[in-house]
């Protein structure tokens, strides 16, 4: 487990630089980089700061995916894809890069999951995750059956937080990622980190235990 603690006013920029460097490092090691994005208010702050970095527009051969998506229309404020397009890609997707979205707005959610799973690479190089005050990551909520999934990579889920109907990657994808960053703003999320760092290992009660080896990005003392 790794932790980076930044002052609240610096959190977005310094976290963005750290993630940007991880993307560049992965690109240098192989043929491009596979990045999985997340949603939420912390992600929006991070994406605005990342987009503003001098090197963002120079990224090449990066494929951006999503770890989960709400079953809403693309122009809905709750859409993770819409959030990324309004923030990280507000000035366009860097040349030679691509965005692969989860098509969660249609009625055939099982079909959408199969289609998206077919688009996923064998491994994500840089995985970004938000974390909820209840310890959920992606759309894997406490007590959810998908926490035990070991075959499928993408599945529909009914969460405990609105919008409840979603698509999400499963622990299979998370476990195979090379680098994982957890966006943990505020005291409530720092408290989740402290539980994981303190040895909590019941991922059914606290899904964040699945990423105990990640780099946690905090803006409060831990």
TrEMBL record:
It holds the Pfam family Glucosamine_iso. Its EC number is 3.1.1.31. One of its GO terms (molecular function) is 6-phosphogluconolactonase activity. SUPFAM superfamilies: NagB/RpiA/CoA transferase-like. Residues 9-212 form the Glucosamine/galactosamine-6-phosphate isomerase domain. It catalyses: 6-phospho-D-glucono-1,5-lactone + H2O = 6-phospho-D-gluconate + H(+). Pathway: Carbohydrate degradation; pentose phosphate pathway; D-ribulose 5-phosphate from D-glucose 6-phosphate (oxidative stage): step 2/3. It is an enzyme of class 3 (hydrolase). Gene3D superfamilies: 3.40.50.1360. It comes from the Bacteria. GO terms for biological process: carbohydrate metabolic process; pentose-phosphate shunt. Hydrolysis of 6-phosphogluconolactone to 6-phosphogluconate. PANTHER family: 6-PHOSPHOGLUCONOLACTONASE. Belongs to the glucosamine/galactosamine-6-phosphate isomerase family. 6-phosphogluconolactonase subfamily. This is 6-phosphogluconolactonase. It comes from Denitromonas halophila. The lineage of its organism: Bacteria, Pseudomonadati, Pseudomonadota, Betaproteobacteria, Rhodocyclales.
């Amino acid at each position: 487990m790794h932790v980076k603690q930044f002052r609240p006013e610096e959190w977005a920029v310094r976290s963005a630089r750290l993630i940007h460097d991880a993307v560049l490092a992965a690109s240098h090691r192989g043929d491009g980089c596979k990045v999985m994005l997340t949603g939420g208010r912390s992600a929006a702050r991070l994406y605005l700061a990342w987009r503003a970095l001098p090197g963002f527009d120079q990224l090449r051969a990066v494929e951006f995916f999503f770890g989960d998506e709400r079953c809403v229309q693309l122009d809905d404020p709750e859409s993770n894809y819409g959030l990324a397009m309004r923030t990280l890609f507000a000035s366009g997707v860097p040349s030679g890069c691509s965005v692969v979205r989860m098509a969660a707005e249609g009625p055939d959610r099982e079909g959408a999951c199969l289609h998206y799973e077919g688009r996923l690479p064998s491994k994500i190089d840089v995985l970004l995750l938000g974390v909820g005050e209840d310890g959920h990551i992606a759309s894997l909520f406490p007590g959810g059956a998908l926490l035990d999934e070991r075959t499928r990579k993408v599945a529909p889920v009914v969460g405990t937080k609105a919008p409840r109907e979603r698509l999400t990657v499963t622990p299979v994808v998370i476990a195979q990622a090379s680098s994982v960053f957890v966006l943990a703003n505020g005291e409530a999320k720092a408290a989740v980190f402290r539980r994981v760092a303190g040895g909590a290992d019941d991922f059914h009660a606290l899904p964040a235990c699945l990423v105990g080896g990640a780099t946690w990005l905090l803006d409060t003392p831990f």
